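Page 37, continued from 36.
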């Protein structure tokens, strides 16, 4: 067992800050209690649990942060040393950069980028990453490579492979197959009673690279696996325009027709969805993953209907995994748009990533209470103003940052202790730089 003493507990939904308390969690593999869960919260717990290892004291303890849309395969693109033609629009950004990069990914490159991106997530207090993977030259087994990296780091996640027609019919079918293979693997682990750290979704690239047959197969995969679709929709104006011109219908209608909209659906971006499509998502309980920084960087516009969505979650879309940084961008870009939301509304979005985890894993996430998942961050935060229930969101928007992360626990297992990662961060970085050079070299040969 691990014990935090005399620490103030920060809750995100509803926002709250407690008086100093102790918290005890079960570690994975313990015979008694509920491994990976919070065992008790109260006063003087060292007396009640004399065997618990003292893990930290003072400061603040909060639930771990969730990144609800990411692409760890892009972790080795930072400062990319490959000539990239200037792009006039979003589709050219995909053609000139991302579709060249993902074709150059083999399994060693994927492993290095997953470890590097996942390690950075943990260092930023992010305990769960919802990933959307692409790598058409190495599809089979790719989700297991990612899973191994998550397990090695002790990071929680939901994985999928982005099915797409852009690499031909065989490529599309290989994508569906990999999603179903991995979901079945997770099901077998669950049936065998093994604790799982990684769940599966059904991945799809975007409406404009998926024809009717692919949509049909995705709908079948969603329903046979009992998972949700994880797809980019209406990231750019081109996506709905292509849907209307090629199929005479809205993007969301295409998902609805194949039965792919449910309460596990993750729709990334959605900037150019209509009011009717937002309404349909709300009725089906689908999540909208908002990626403020990525939208700004790709100049695709702003989601003016954001506040009409019932279930907004926040993601980075591959721009690192620092969710406090992402939270700030989401708040400030919204303020600039003169929208109706305030930091507290975005805090609810940040917290909602935990509801997504609950939909996939079951159990209770993002709550500091007995029996909830022990995914925790211990913060070294000494604010210049009082931190109380009414201003938690204000402290996140204007103060708290990942440099205050002191210790990180995922599933009851310490991953960072007193600012020291309990995984080999140096070796991960060195291998990532080696693989990045190889990735860039391969990209040079891809038009
Ligand atoms: Zn994305």
């Amino acid at each position: 067992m691990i014990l935090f003493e005399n620490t103030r507990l920060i809750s995100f939904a509803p926002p709250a800050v407690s008086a100093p308390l102790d918290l005890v969690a079960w570690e994975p593999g313990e015979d008694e209690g509920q491994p990976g869960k919070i065992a008790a919260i109260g006063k003087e717990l060292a007396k009640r649990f004399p065997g618990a290892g003292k893990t930290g004291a003072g400061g603040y303890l909060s639930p771990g942060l969730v990144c609800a849309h990411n692409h760890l395969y892009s972790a080795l693109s930072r400062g990319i040393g490959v000539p990239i033609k200037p792009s006039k629009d979003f589709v050219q950004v995909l053609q000139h950069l991302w579709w060249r990069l993902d074709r150059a990914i083999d399994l060693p490159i994927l492993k290095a980028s997953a470890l590097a991106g996942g390690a950075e997530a943990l260092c930023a207090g992010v305990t769960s990453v919802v990933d959307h993977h692409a790598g058409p030259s190495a599809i089979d087994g790719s989700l297991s490579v990612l899973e191994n990296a998550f397990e090695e780091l002790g990071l929680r996640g939901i994985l999928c492979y982005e099915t797409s027609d852009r690499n031909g019919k065989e490529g599309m079918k290989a994508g569906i197959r990999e999603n179903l293979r991995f979901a079945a693997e997770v099901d077998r682990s669950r049936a065998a009673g093994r604790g799982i750290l990684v769940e599966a979704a059904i991945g799809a690239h975007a409406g404009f690279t998926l024809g009717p047959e692919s949509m049909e197969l995705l709908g079948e995969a969603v329903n046979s696996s009992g998972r949700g679709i994880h797809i980019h929709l209406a990231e750019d104006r081109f996506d709905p325009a292509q849907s209307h011109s090629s199929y005479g219908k809205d993007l969301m209608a295409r998902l609805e027709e194949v039965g792919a909209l449910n309460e596990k659906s993750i729709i990334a971006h959605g900037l150019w969805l209509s009011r009717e499509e937002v309404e349909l998502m709300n009725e089906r309980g689908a999540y909208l993953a908002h990626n403020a920084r990525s939208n700004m960087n790709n100049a695709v516009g702003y989601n003016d209907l954001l506040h009409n969505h019932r279930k907004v979650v926040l993601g980075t879309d591959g721009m690192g995994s620092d969710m406090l940084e992402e939270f700030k961008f989401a708040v400030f870009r919204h303020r600039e748009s003169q929208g109706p939301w305030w930091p507290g509304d975005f805090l609810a979005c940040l917290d909602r990533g935990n509801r997504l985890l609950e939909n996939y894993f079951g159990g209770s996430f993002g709550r500091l209470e007995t029996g909830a998942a022990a995914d925790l961050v211990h913060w070294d935060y000494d604010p210049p103003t009082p931190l109380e229930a009414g201003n938690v969101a204000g402290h996140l928007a204007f103060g708290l940052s990942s440099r205050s992360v002191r210790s990180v626990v995922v599933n009851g297992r310490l991953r960072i202790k007193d600012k020291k990662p309990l995984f080999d961060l140096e070796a991960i970085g060195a291998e990532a730089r080696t693989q990045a050079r190889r990735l860039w070299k391969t990209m040079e040969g891809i038009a």
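The CA atoms of residues 331 and 342 lie 7 Å apart. Flag for discussion at group meeting. The mean pLDDT is 96.
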